[in-house]
Amino acid sequence: MSNVDLGARSDRGSAYAELSRLVRGAGFLDRQPGRYAARVTVLLGCLVLMGVVFVRLGSSWWQTATAVGVAVLLAQLAFLGHDAGHRQIFRSRRANDVLGMVCANLMTGISYGWWVDKHNRHHAHPNTEGRDPDIVVAPLSFTPGQVATQRGLRALFVRHQAALFFPLLMLEGLHLHAAGVRAVVSRGGLRHRPAEAGLLVLHFAGYLAAVFLVLSVPQAIVFILVNQALFGLYLGSSFAPNHKGMPILSEADDLDYLRRQVLTSRNVRGGRILDVLLGGLNYQIEHHLFPSMPRPNLRHAQPLIRQFCADYGIAYHETTLIQSWSQGLAHLRVIGTGATRRDND
């Protein structure tokens, strides 16, 4: 485990219970249907506007700019699906699942059920080696143990993984699509497999039909490449600040829930524009402590939670967006030097 001050341990369990009472008493766990209704309305309006622009432009290389706008909208829809997956929007699980599948499967081409399962495992064991799927991301290596297993071209990649990280994120959208398709065609336990499969088919059929019916073949190919690359880059760049470069725990590390979530997470400072751009993920500490807290409440809960951590001597890490990326890349660079040293031995 990375060197980190674990803080006082005598309050095990009781501190989080106290924090939960404070947060609930302040109303920060209350749902915000009006705010989410406004958010959905804005996104739908932007989608309609983007569709009109796409059709009016027709077969034009200016559609490359449209591809950028569509990438941003797809990422924003993915953020909304993330909120639904955490039951932030509706009281009903079914209502959240329906909205989540519409945002994920139909609109962005990602399996909602697959993603929720993976993401819940991450939340239960953030940055824990052997438990968190988000630090088992080939071809990247996040721990010395992962580096030790790399050979040949993979070891060569790891040596340069910090420089290749952001270019690699351009493939993240394609990876999410492929993982979603594998999930619905495999024999795993998706709760709504028929619905998810049908919505994915509608997404890919509608996406490809719209692109190839309106654009020439070369324009369509460029549109897809630009759109998917920027979609992956946007999503990956939004998730990367959350935990990359923060302490990585082993299964033997005996931390209570409060410290496990706070010490492995990083907040990103910024105003309301950044809140929108990052889908609320910049309040990662608050989100990990209370995953069902509606996104609009995270900003308001932050001062209380930050002060609570200070009172209990728990390190609360907060930085700028650029610094968060820099810290994540620094970690990848340090880990990558292990591959270089091993090859030189």
Automatic annotation (TrEMBL):
<feature type="transmembrane region" description="Helical">
    <location>
        <begin position="61"/>
        <end position="82"/>
    </location>
</feature>
<feature type="domain" description="Fatty acid desaturase">
    <location>
        <begin position="60"/>
        <end position="319"/>
    </location>
</feature>
<dbReference type="Pfam" id="PF00487">
    <property type="entry name" value="FA_desaturase"/>
</dbReference>
<feature type="transmembrane region" description="Helical">
    <location>
        <begin position="197"/>
        <end position="215"/>
    </location>
</feature>
<feature type="transmembrane region" description="Helical">
    <location>
        <begin position="36"/>
        <end position="55"/>
    </location>
</feature>
<dbReference type="InterPro" id="IPR012171">
    <property type="entry name" value="Fatty_acid_desaturase"/>
</dbReference>
<dbReference type="GO" id="GO:0016717">
    <property type="term" value="F:oxidoreductase activity, acting on paired donors, with oxidation of a pair of donors resulting in the reduction of molecular oxygen to two molecules of water"/>
</dbReference>
<dbReference type="GO" id="GO:0016020">
    <property type="term" value="C:membrane"/>
</dbReference>
<keyword id="KW-0472">Membrane</keyword>
<keyword id="KW-0812">Transmembrane</keyword>
<feature type="transmembrane region" description="Helical">
    <location>
        <begin position="162"/>
        <end position="185"/>
    </location>
</feature>
<dbReference type="GO" id="GO:0008610">
    <property type="term" value="P:lipid biosynthetic process"/>
</dbReference>
<protein>
    <submittedName>
        <fullName>Delta(8)-fatty-acid desaturase</fullName>
    </submittedName>
</protein>
<feature type="transmembrane region" description="Helical">
    <location>
        <begin position="94"/>
        <end position="115"/>
    </location>
</feature>
<dbReference type="InterPro" id="IPR005804">
    <property type="entry name" value="FA_desaturase_dom"/>
</dbReference>
<keyword id="KW-1133">Transmembrane helix</keyword>
